[in-house]
Write a structure and sequence with these properties.
Elements (H helix, E strand, L loop, with lengths): L12 H13 L12 E6 L5 H12 L3 E6 L7 E2 L12 E2 H11 L2 E5 L7 H5 L2 H9 L4 E3 L7 H14 L6 E6 L9 H12 L3 E5 L8 H4 L3 E3 L2 H5 L4 E5 L21 H4 L6 E3 L12 H4 L6 H24 L1
Parallel strand pairs: 1-2, 1-5, 3-4, 5-6, 7-8, 7-10, 8-9, 10-11
Bound molecules: phosphoric acid mono(formamide)ester.
Length: 317
């Protein structure tokens, strides 16, 4: 693996999953792989899990890390070509990415969708610019359209907890007070289908995801019908893709409740975190044995460590 921007960078998903499960059993198996190498974690947006799991994963591989919070510590970055830089953005990505790439062996970036202009977010300008101007491997820590490290951790968690070879996985939209990106939902759909699981997506009308993410999944507008017989229920809010970035509904009837979980096949509850209790999902579900949210977050270390292991091995070739 040269870089990790999306599932398209994964040439063999079963082999990557096998690697992850091996690393989970023995996290220090490759403790010397990253020695004398370093990674820069660049955050244009806040994080708890991604920031700490990336540092822990690097530590387990002997890799040093540095963190740059662009908002509070770095110069504001300009990404446009041919721009007259007379606003508040002091540094162009051309110089910033080249300089960072000259200091580090791997660069990981978090840059959320701005939810103002769909074409801009879906062009992945930030990731693509780093890919173009940074001379070392790039890792996506959540971009405008995807969160592949999260989706990989979710897949590891399902693999560890599934009771049948092809579980029924339901992605359900849930209400949220603020507009959120589609990145987590997009990646979850892609990875679950790449793993050949049975995916149903449920949401109110107007919240259809981009066609490439929906793929061959079943879309059901009635949440209770969708949950029938589910082995895994993944709740997530996202803003509208068609009416881009807009909150079209805050309907509390879409919250995941214990009553709804009773419709499932003793299904497990999943969410990427952070989660708004009693808005997205009620306490009773989150605090029950059915909840996998902590194992999912724990597996964020494994997903990053597996990706880093593959990138470091490729660098040694
Ligand atoms: N799920 C996730 O990416 O969490 P953070 O935003 O806290 O990193």
């Amino acid at each position: 693996m040269k870089s990790f921007l999306s599932i398209q960078d994964v040439s063999n998903l079963p082999a990557l999953l096998k690697d992850a499960l091996e690393i989970k059993k023995n996290p220090h198996l490759y403790a010397k792989l990253g020695q004398q190498k370093s990674m820069c974690l660049i955050f244009l947006n806040p994080s708890l899990r991604t920031r700490l799991s990336a540092q822990k994963a690097a530590f387990n591989l002997g890799l040093s890390t540095a963190v740059l919070d662009v908002g509070s510590q770095g110069w504001q970055l300009e990404f446009g070509d041919g721009i007259i830089m007379d606003s508040d953005k002091a540094e162009h990505i051309k110089e910033a990415a080249a300089v960072i790439g000259s200091y580090f062996d791997v660069v990981a970036i978090r840059a959320f969708a701005k939810l103002e202009d769909r074409n801009e977010d879906y062009s992945e300008q930030v990731m693509e610019s780093f890919k173009k101007y940074c001379p070392v491997p790039i890792i996506n820590m959540e971009s405008g359209t995807g969160h592949p490290l999260q989706a990989f951790a979710d897949l590891i968690t399902i693999e560890e907890n599934k009771m049948v070879a092809k579980p029924k996985v339901v992605l359900t939209w849930a209400p949220h007070p603020k507009p959120l990106p589609q990145a987590v939902a997009n990646s979850f759909c892609r990875w679950i289908q790449a793993a050949n699981f049975d995916l149903t997506i449920t949401h109110p009308k107007g919240y259809e995801l981009v066609d490439e993410a929906v793929g061959k999944a079943t879309v059901v507008y009635n949440q209770q019908n969708a949950l029938d017989g589910a082995d895994f229920v993944y709740a997530k809010n996202w803003s509208s893709y068609t009416n881009y970035g807009k909150v079209l509904s805050k309907d509390p009837d879409w919250m995941v409740t214990q009553e709804k979980m009773n419709l499932t096949n003793q299904g497990k509850f999943m969410h990427c975190l952070p989660v708004r209790r009693n808005v997205i999902v009620e306490d009773a579900v989150l605090d029950s044995d059915q909840s996998l949210v902590i194992p999912q977050a724990t597996n964020r270390v494994i997903s990053m460590q597996t990706v880093l292991k593959n990138i470091l091995e490729e660098m040694k070739k």
